[in-house]
């Protein structure tokens, strides 16, 4: 079984998974900030209600020295409540609270400025995040959970004048500058930078403020940060630069801004990806063309490989990006069509692995020197890739355009953990579909053919359970004029091609379940889990053995690793 190909798609998903986690992290931040700025009159004291949206005279009348440090059930201070509130008098309330009510007590004042809510935010975070509103708009905002926020500049400036730390990240390691960059407020960004906010500080995902502004597509904030001296080549947690983020999101205007500010399009991230790799993968043509024009050596740039050996063309082909592929080939020449990655896949292999565009495959096959039967370093062809990944229409297209299903991959090129696996019990039957008329083929008719030597496309399709592809390959094998596949079973106009019985696979599954039950019987009851107690929620990762799911077990969030039984079978046989 071509277990090594399991990684051919998953490796490129790493960046996508990282971005998903980043988005989820910021979604949590938004949710908790929304929780902190929400009015809770039923749970608040009259003083706290007055701090939120009452008249300043009512607030002053109700405030006593003892109540200066009072807290809401959410552990919000009066300063938090004022910053979350919606009143034209909020700045005056802050000044009175910090100057008059604190009575010159610097410790009490600093305690209010640095105090964090249960959700981990300071009053500055609230001021930066919340949206100002008055009149009718105020009522609408109170009743809406999904309104946008742009920050309250007057409150931010007031807090800064009172000595608030512009770099205080809070429990979430989220500096106010990053929050301002996220919501898209250049005026607040400017105010924070002027008062000492660090342009190089990292947040909880190791983004700088420039990363945040780029990630959330806030062009004016990007412009502001660059004018304040932000480094366009600053690294994120995986050496991802703002230019990588702009390219992956198709932000052509921000891409141009970063390049004009000195961002280097030749800098790679930890996986060796240039910004061009991301533009090619996502198919954002405007950004791709900008990056190509900015390159001093287009041919060299287009031929750049990441740690997986992928050129930008490989990623375009995995993603089915026809226009990107056309542009890259036109820029670098068709010689890049024979470039293989570490999975022994050329761009044509990649297009067949991704299986997203027959038009792309047709275009690639028309390029000079492209052979549909080209075998990568491990011997597998584009047909192998399409069969393994279950792309029926692409398999048919390849067969109709010269693909040879008798070509075999070399299993000795697989990772060491998969080498030496014993032959399959269905090998003799399955190999009848592809056996060429050779001396070795003839001599093998009365013996079991080793899967180690005969990894043909049909075996790959069968191993993955793609029955319709197996049937299609059988049909085309019977049409071959040189095929001996029907010789023993032909009669007149009818013929029969033997296919492997599913019983072998069922026996394997039954045996493994028996072994699991045997292992379970040797373990103490405390280690026994019932599927009824486990709730599978969503896939959060994958690897060579199978998938990892987020789920719950008896009220607790857990990670559940679900194994691929076919891979387990190989490892067990070693």
What is the topological layout?
Blueprint: H1 7-10, H2 13-36, H3 46-53, H4 56-62, H5 78-84, H6 90-101, H7 106-114, H8 123-129, H9 135-142, H10 153-161, H11 176-183, H12 186-194, H13 209-215, H14 219-227, H15 242-249, H16 252-260, H17 275-282, H18 285-294, H19 298-302, H20 312-318, H21 322-332, H22 347-354, H23 358-365, H24 382-388, H25 392-400, H26 427-431, H27 439-443, H28 457-463, H29 467-479, H30 503-522, E1 534-542, E2 546-553, E3 556-563, H31 565-573
Antiparallel strand pairs: 1-2, 2-3
Describe this structure in words.
The protein has 574 residues and is mostly helical. Helices cover 48% and strands 4% of the residues. A three-stranded antiparallel β-sheet has the order 1-2-3. Helix 17 (275-282) runs antiparallel to helix 18 and helix 24 (382-388) runs antiparallel to helix 25 (392-400). The protein is flat and about 95 Å long. Mean pLDDT is 83; it is low at 1-11, 133-148, 413-449, 484-498 and 565-574.
Briefly summarize what is shown.
The chain has helices spanning 7-10, 13-36, 46-53, 56-62, 78-84, 90-101, 106-114, 123-129, 135-142, 153-161, 176-183, 186-194, 209-215, 219-227, 242-249, 252-260, 275-282, 285-294, 298-302, 312-318, 322-332, 347-354, 358-365, 382-388, 392-400, 427-431, 439-443, 457-463, 467-479, 503-522, 565-573; strands at residues 534-542, 546-553, 556-563.
Features of this protein?
repeat, ATP binding, Serine Threonine Protein Phosphatase 5, Tetratricopeptide repeat, Phosphorylase Kinase, domain 1, 3 domains, Ankyrin_rpt-contain_sf, ATP-binding, Ankyrin_rpt, single chain, mainly alpha
């Amino acid at each position: 079984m071509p277990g090594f190909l399991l990684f051919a798609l998953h490796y490129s998903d790493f960046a996508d998974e990282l971005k998903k986690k980043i988005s989820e992290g910021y979604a949590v931040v938004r949710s908790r900030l929304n929780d902190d700025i929400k009015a809770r009159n039923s749970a608040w004291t009259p003083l706290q209600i007055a701090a939120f949206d009452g008249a300043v005279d009512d607030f002053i009348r109700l405030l006593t020295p003892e109540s200066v440090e009072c807290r809401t059930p959410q552990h919000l201070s009066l300063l938090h409540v004022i910053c979350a509130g919606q009143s034209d008098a909020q700045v005056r309330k802050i000044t009175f609270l910090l100057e008059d009510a604190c009575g010159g007590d610097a410790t009490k004042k600093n305690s209010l400025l640095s105090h964090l809510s249960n959700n981990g935010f300071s009053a500055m975070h609230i001021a930066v995040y919340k949206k100002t509103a008055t009149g009718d708009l105020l009522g609408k905002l109170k009743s809406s959970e999904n309104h946008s926020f742009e920050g309250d500049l007057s409150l931010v400036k007031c807090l800064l004048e009172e000595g608030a730390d512009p770099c205080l990240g809070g429990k979430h390691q989220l500096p106010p500058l990053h929050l301002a960059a996220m919501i898209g407020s250049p005026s607040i960004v400017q105010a924070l930078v002027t008062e000492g906010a660090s342009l190089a500080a990292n947040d909880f995902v190791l983004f700088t403020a420039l990363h945040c502004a780029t990630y959330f597509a806030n062009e004016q904030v990007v412009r502001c940060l660059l004018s304040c001296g932000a480094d366009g080549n600053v690294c994120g947690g995986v050496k991802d630069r703002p230019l990588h983020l702009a390219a992956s999101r198709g932000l052509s205007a921000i891409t141009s801004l970063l390049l004009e500010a000195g961002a280097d399009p030749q800098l790679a991230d930890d996986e060796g990806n240039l910004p061009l790799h991301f533009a090619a993968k996502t198919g954002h043509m405007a950004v791709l063309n900008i990056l190509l024009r900015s390159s001093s050596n287009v041919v060299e740039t287009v031929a750049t490989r990441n740690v997986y050996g992928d050129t930008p063309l490989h990623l375009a082909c995995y993603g089915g990006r026809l226009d990107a592929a056309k542009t890259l080939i036109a820029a670098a020449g068709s010689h890049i069509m024979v470039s293989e990655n570490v999975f022994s896949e050329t761009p044509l292999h990649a297009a067949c692995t991704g299986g997203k565009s027959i038009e792309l495959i047709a275009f690639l096959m028309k390029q000079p020197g492209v052979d549909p039967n080209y075998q990568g370093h491990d011997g597998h062809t584009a047909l192998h890739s399409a069969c393994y990944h279950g792309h029926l229409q692409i398999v048919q297209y390849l067969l109709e355009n010269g693909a040879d299903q008798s070509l075999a991959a070399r299993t000795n090129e697989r990772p060491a953990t998969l080498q030496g696996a014993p032959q399959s019990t269905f090998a003799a039957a399955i190999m009848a579909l592809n056996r060429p008329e050779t001396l070795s083929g003839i001599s093998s008719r009365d013996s079991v053919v080793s899967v180690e030597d005969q990894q043909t496309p049909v075996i790959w399709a069968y191993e993955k359970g793609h029955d319709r592809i197996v049937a299609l390959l059988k049909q085309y094998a019977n049409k071959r004029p040189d095929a001996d596949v029907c010789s023993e079973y032909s009669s007149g106009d009818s013929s029969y091609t033997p296919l492997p019985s599913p019983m072998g696979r069922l026996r394997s599954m039954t045996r493994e379940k028996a072994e699991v039950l045997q292992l379970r019987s040797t373990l103490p009851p405390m280690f026994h889990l019932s599927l009824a107690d486990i709730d599978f929620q969503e896939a959060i990762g994958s690897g060579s053995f199978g998938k990892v799911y987020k789920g719950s077990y008896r009220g607790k969030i857990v990670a559940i690793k679900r194994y691929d039984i076919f891979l387990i079978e190989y490892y067990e046989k070693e």
